Amino acid sequence: MIRGVIVMNDRGKPRLVKFYEFQPAEKQQELIRSIYRVLCSRAENVSNFVKVDSLFGPDVRLVYKTYATLYFVFIFDSSENELAMLDLMQVFVEALDKCFSNVCEIDVVFNFNKVHTILDEFILGGQVLETNSSEVVKTVEEISKFFLPPQLCVCLISFRYSYGYDLLFYAGSRGLQIQSWAVHQFLAGSGDSIFIALVTSFITILC
Amino acid sequence: MAGPSLMDSFFQRSLDDLIKGIRLCLPGGEAAFIAKSVDEIRREIKSTDSQTKATALQKLTYLHSLHWVDMSWAAFPAVELSSSSVHSHKRLALLSASLSFNPTTDVILLLTHQLRKDFSSSNPHDVSLALSTLSSISTLDLSRDLTPELFILLNSSKNFVKKKAIAAILRVFEQYPEAVRVCFKRIVENLESSDMGVLSAAVGLFCELTVREPRSYLPLAPEFYKILLDSRNNWVLIKVLKIFAKLAPLEPRLAKRIVEPICEHLRRTGSKSLAFECVNTIVTSLSEHEPAVKLAIMKIQEFLLENDPNLKYLGLQALAVVAAKHSWAVLENKEVVIKSLDDVDVNIKLESLQLVMAMVSEDNLAEICKVLISYALKSEPEFCNEILGSILSTCSRNFYEVIVDFDWYVSLLGEMSRIPHCQKGDDIETQLIDIGMRVKDVRLELVHVARGLLIDPALLGNPFIHNVLSAAAWLSGEYVEFSRNLLELMESLLQPRTCLLPSPIRAVYIQSAFKVLTFGVYSFLSTGDDASYPSELTDFVLKEDFQESSETVTSAPISGADLSNGLNPRSSHPSAGNGEDPVIAHEQTSSASSKKQQLTQKSVMDLVNLVEVNLGPLAGSHEVEIQERASNILGMIGMIKPRIHSSMDESEGDRIKRELRASGMMKLMFDAFSEELGPVSVSAQERVPIPEGLVLKESLSDIEAICDHIKLPISSSFSLVRSHSLNNATTIHEHPSKEEYEPSSESTSLLAEHRKRHGIYYLSSENKVMISDDYPPALELKDQAIDEAEDLVKLTKQSLDLRKKRNQAKPRPVVVKLDDGEGAHIVVKKPQLKDDLISGAVREVLLGNEAASSSSNKAIKKREKNELNIDRPESNITMTSTVASEPGNASSRHKLRISGKEKKRSSSGKEKKEHDHKHNQKSDRIHAKHKSRQRADGTLNVAAQSPVIPDFLL
Prior knowledge:
Chain B: Belongs to the adaptor complexes large subunit family. Chain B: One of its GO terms (biological process) is Golgi to vacuole transport. The structure holds 2 protein chains of 2 kinds. Chain A is of the alpha+beta class. Chain A folds into 2 domains: 2-144, Beta-Lactamase (2-Layer Sandwich), CATH 3.30.450; 150-206, no CATH class. In chain A, 55% of the residues lie in helices and 17% in strands. In chain A, helix 5 crosses helix 6 (133-144), helix 7 (150-162) runs parallel beside helix 10 and helix 9 runs antiparallel to helix 10. Chain A is elongated and about 65 Å long. In chain B, 70% of the residues lie in helices and 0% in strands. In chain B, helix 34 packs antiparallel against helix 35. The relative contact order of chain B is 0.05. By secondary structure, chain B is mostly helical. Chain B is elongated, with a radius of gyration of 40 Å. Chains A and B meet through strand 2, helix 1, strand 3, helix 3 and helix 5 of A and helix 1, helix 2, helix 4, helix 6 and helix 8 of B.
């Protein structure tokens, strides 16, 4: 089983922290600090495994890899294969690379939720579910269709407030009904973002 | 309400804004910024607008996950938002739940309904999200309530959902083992799935379960075997190999069966991870199969020669596993292993060090240690100490069983403590003393090594080896009879740089000086007496030939010469000047093995003066240990000095009187020190019987009152002793004997008074430890003390004697061992209750279920069968109804049966075994029927031959 996945930068700042067994916040902090201490003391071109018996108990292993400014760290126990974990890490980074086209630290920093979504497609409850990065990318793209593009969010919110929040419910105006219907359609996952943008701008003009 | 909410929503910072803000913070200002943002979030999260709430929660989750901000207060908004119809909001909410909820979060229960709804959602992403949330926050209640829904999902038509359900169910099993009874069959069915994702998830699940308790999953071996043969997916194969690695040791026939396919995979595969897993499985679980092991070792060799440090590291690790059973494998790769000691990678170095230590045997120990020490000298401190540590632990393993030549080992210890980076002082100290006590024959060499350490003033500056010095000082005091040159030894024990030592160690130094002095003076007195006073006092003295004592004359000037070089003891060898080297003189004495070093009057006087001059100032030391020991020595010197002085020019009567007293005292002192110390068993203390009438658990709460009461007298008597000891140092020549007991009389009277008042806290006075009110003279007081010490020594000796004798038949130098209490305590690890429950349930399902139902409850069986048959082909909707009724029924029925069974189990293990055995046979038959198409002939015969473990193989 995989016990945890950590991504941190070369100064020890965590960028992604996921433990598959509950760890209190203080413990997480302490673990990350001690892992960072070990990692930054290791030279380049050495093996990617680190003994972490003292941190996680016997039988638990840690593998890490450096990609540019980021350390990717997988913590796992004896029911995982060491080299397979390295492969999985590679696939995970590949998926990130595809999702963000040439991933760099900034992407990971600003896409907290998306990175978690990607990771969840690979690992569920500590078990590896998918080892093909393209599959994951496909799924993640499907999921991200459910997220409103930020511009649209702003548009919607400003629309709502400029005409009064309650208007939407009480005005009974045809246009607003259409709009709320369209938004609902979109949010339920069956609409298209361009369609709703069109509807919204249409109503804005009307009003 | 709408006021702030509207403004907040309109100008709400998004997560991006928050991150940017944090990044722009000056160092140190981050905490303040985060606190401010959390305040904002607290307001925003109350908003009725779900978008605002979602953004607030998103920000909070981010802060919690990466800045460890407490968000336990926001558990409810997360639950609230999770019911949003908007997928993105739901996702935010559930992510925050899975990152922040802990098993004690009380609102988890409120999620049950929502998760149930999501499980039946038509959107697969909703389902998958709910599954992943369940797996991170599963509690007993949640697992129990959602088991029926999971059961349905296990049969989902979408593989995407199915595989996630299989993965999530592991957590449910952990929390709620009863779920096994409901879901297990469906999971087993998935082992035949054609979809790689589903198969991989199912095999992964079994891998987890098998690691916890392998035995229950033996009946599934045929299914796994089939996968091992057919699958071409490396992930699946790796997991299956992991399962077999656990199963094979339980069933030798299974091992025989799988060894060929595994070798085939090993030969064929191009994937390093699969190859490594094959190697791992072979070396851990199939090590009896010679050809397979050979193949695995060939593969390991390939790994070792690769440039990839990971492969090298893992190869070495695998080699270490093989080493336990096939040491030739390591010897074959000796070169690579030893070369790896020099690798840049610490991991590889440590592994190879471990392997090198695994190669150690009686014959090559010295050679290996030589190589290792040379590596230690050139490595960085950390690794150097790793090397030293592993040498020390390997050599001391099982009472130094690999060591034949203890002289060599002892000098190696000395050499090790001189390595600049050495921080293993504690271990070396322990071993030096331990060897001294256990191995008689090596004491001469020990004292020699100790001398080497003591006379080097440079070593005193290195705090890491102070402990070693302490051991050296103790050894040279305890075994002073092996010392070559008492003066030189005394010089080194009292050299000025000893002030660098911490006081406990310095106390050891002074105590050793005491022993050396006692020995020196005593042997001088007894040899002197030999000639002129053949009285009963000298009877105990080892008979010494007059001839030999005449040799004293030849060695005496050398001692004198040493003394004159006293300031620089190390130079004594080269600059001795005389044609005769002290070593030669010593060889003569040491050849007369137990014979003592001979001393002239002058050299003894030098010795005494040396001690007096050096210890005089220490009598006023602030450290109790030092001060007390120094005073003891000075007191003794006070008594013996006149005797030595007066040997020649005093009247006969006086002389005899003094002689008698001094010699008598010296004999007592000498005897006290010459009593040999042996190793003490760890459990020795427990064997001392508790005296009758001693109540150890009595409440001592009222002792405080007594302590309060006694505080003043104690401190005053303390200062009395102090001032006295100072006195003693200066006036010692005048009334040594009188001064000696005065303070003790003072304190004894206090003690007596105390005893009178608080008698209940004292032991009964039979032990004669208690003090009578008339004060014995100093000499007898000491006598008594020595008696007591002797008693104690005798006691411990008696308690050890039996064991000592039993262990003394060995060809190499005898190493004294104690039978009991010295081995490490073996802690029996109990399997975890939960795992036990899971595997119990699994056994029930795999073995018991069918048998029981076939025999007794035909009706129920029929119904169950019907349901199972119906389940598969039918659509989701109809299934829901049938299934919803089924698990409840089944589990309640099982519950009843289990409780009965559990009772039986606890009452007698044997019965249980038979019971299980019956089940096994029955299930085996059923399995045989069930799998008859896959099964080879003759399985049933095999099962009949070995009744205890049924054959589960194909």
